[in-house]
Design brief:
3 domains, 342 residues, flat, alpha+beta, single chain, 9% strand, five-stranded antiparallel sheet
């Protein structure tokens, strides 16, 4: 019996090793097939590029020249200003930036010079002024949290978080990046005042700002008065406790339940005081973040950064035309293949 069991075990071990060997063989075969596929794909791409190299080269040259002439003389620089728009002024800010960019596209250097109080030569050097929201995951979560806090329970239940986030527009975000491009590297600081003041001087936004400041001042005054009253009450409780302690020393009977109640009241007053202090801190933060109609978080640099070739018009035009050529060639090859199949 032992000999038979031993033989059976040896047979099972042999089968196990065979299975392991087949598994490794299949794995190596799969790796080999994959590498072979990559090699064939690489060869196909190289042959494709060699066949159509002249077409791609012509497209790149045409794109480069088109971008070069559209960009004009001088290598462009760029600078970015980060702002936050308060009191519903973000729409006006975007409208103004669109207006500035339209003047640049129309080469209206006279209007630009008058608008920004710069020379005609400086105005002619401007290539674009663009704006875009700064979108981060933290910003999205903050907007979602604000929506949950302000909306009623029924609305919150009906709207899924993903649906709400997908419905956000560029105007919902707090911070925005204004990017200016110019062939003159030291012009950007001169643009800041006009961009900010043309929104801040709007009467409607100024009225909203004044109302905001008055409400904050009134609330702050009320909260400070409450703090004074709380301090008075706490001092009163302390005096009562001291008198009761004196009675204890003289042997007078003390009402323990009354003593406990006073301590609970003092704890409650402390909690209220903490809540008021937190609210005062929030008001101070809001004054700092929303104290201006357009709050400049970081301004334009004194000197702009040089644009890389790939982000300039010659590079972008060349890439676009090469990509367009590739799509056209692939469509022609696909059409030939389909004709052969018919």
């Amino acid at each position: 019996m032992n000999t038979e069991n031993s033989n059976n075990d040896e047979i099972e071990i042999g089968k196990l090793f065979q299975l392991i060997g087949k598994g490794f063989a299949n794995l190596f075969n799969a790796i080999g097939d994959f590498l072979n596929f990559l090699f064939k794909a690489l060869i196909f791409m190289l042959l494709f590029l060699r066949k159509h190299f002249i077409k791609f080269a012509i497209a790149a040259i045409i794109g480069f020249l088109g971008g070069y002439f559209s960009e004009g003389t001088g290598r462009p620089f760029k600078s970015i200003m980060i702002v936050s728009a308060n009191f519903n002024s973000v729409h006006q800010l975007y409208n103004n930036i669109t207006y500035y960019n339209n003047l640049i596209e129309q080469n209206d250097s006279l209007s630009l010079a008058e608008l920004f109080t710069i020379s005609n030569h400086e105005a002619a050097s401007l290539k674009s002024i663009e704006i875009a929201p700064i979108i981060t995951e933290n910003e999205k979560l903050s907007l979602l949290d604000e929506f949950v806090k302000t909306a009623d329970t029924t609305t919150v239940k009906l709207i899924e978080p993903n649906v709400y986030l997908s419905s956000l527009t560029i105007f919902n975000y707090k911070n925005h990046a204004i990017t200016a491009k110019s062939t003159q590297k030291d012009i950007f600081k001169k643009l800041e005042t006009t961009i900010i003041d043309n929104v801040s001087q709007n009467d409607y936004f100024k009225e909203n700002k004044e109302a905001f400041e008055k409400n904050n001042a009134f609330e702050t005054k009320e909260l400070l008065m409450q703090l004074v009253q709380i301090d008075s009450l706490r001092n009163l409780y302390k005096q009562v406790l001291l008198k009761e302690a004196e009675k204890k020393n003289t042997g007078t009977q003390i009402d323990l339940s009354s003593n406990t109640s006073k301590k609970e009241n003092e704890i409650e007053l402390f909690k209220i005081q903490q809540t008021i202090n937190t609210r005062l801190s929030e008001i101070n933060i809001s004054k700092a973040e929303e104290g201006q109609i357009i709050n400049k978080i970081s301004g334009f640099g004194a000197v702009g950064q040089k644009l890389s070739f790939i982000s300039r018009a010659p590079g972008l035009y060349a890439l676009f035309l090469v990509g367009l050529t590739l799509v056209v060639i692939l469509l022609i090859e696909l059409n030939k293949y389909l004709k052969k199949q018919l």
